[in-house]
């Protein structure tokens, strides 16, 4: 069985995708899948399952009841009682988050070695695993995966630029720089994509827009990479 936590929590068994149930059951499974093969204490599970609300008065009993319901959904042998807590009988290879991380490492390594085609293939496979916000049922753990998703997106666009996909990259980069206005690497990619399509005037305008955004929003000037691109355009 595989566990999908890059979005609303789901299981996948021989191609059949299913939800374990309501929000608390999904949060419980996500908390276990986040730590595949490791024992998770009841205190940790209670904190995460009831992160948005006060836990019930008899929280350990409520957790035990939830574990029983989850076992009926995914199989008793899958959620194992162990000294000190509960353990999901799975490995990192069974959880989409960790498959994603592995594929991103492969993609960025290939890009660093100059193999843009291999990088694009790995990064496409990685990004295709996402179905919505990371850890939608455990939002307190989403920051790291979302940051890596953005890193993978930047790397995939850079691979595309090396493969000659600049015209397709420009609209995507405009969207991303609007969503992440202080992300200098995205601004640099946009300027590079505009240059690659022969739009130097637009590239200069994109630099000026980035400079103004950084100055007004953060009180900073563009970093070395943006300044170097600007100098090349003059």
Layout of SSEs?
Blueprint: E1 2-4, E2 10-13, E3 16-18, H1 23-33, E4 39-40, H2 42-49, H3 59-74, E5 79-82, E6 85-88, H4 96-112, H5 116-127, H6 143-162, H7 166-179, H8 184-196, H9 200-218, H10 224-233
Antiparallel strand pairs: 1-2, 2-3, 4-6, 5-6
Task: Give a quick rundown of the structure.
With 234 residues, the protein is mainly alpha-helical. Helix content is 60%, strand content 9%.
Give a description of the structure.
The chain is mostly helical and 234 residues long. Among the domains are: 2-92, Arc Repressor Mutant, subunit A (Orthogonal Bundle), CATH 1.10.10; 164-234, Tetratricopeptide repeat domain (Serine Threonine Protein Phosphatase 5, Tetratricopeptide repeat). The chain is built from 10 helices and 6 strands. Strand 5 and strand 6 form a beta hairpin. Helix 6 packs parallel to helix 8, helix 8 packs antiparallel against helix 9 and helix 9 runs antiparallel to helix 10 (224-233). The termini are far apart. One of its GO terms (biological process) is regulation of DNA-templated transcription. Residues 1-90 form the OmpR/PhoB-type domain. This is AfsR/SARP family transcriptional regulator. Residues 1-90 bind DNA. InterPro entries: AfsR-DnrI-RedD_regulator, BTAD, OmpR/PhoB-type_DNA-bd, Sig_transdc_resp-reg_C-effctor, TPR-like_helical_dom_sf, WH-like_DNA-bd_sf.
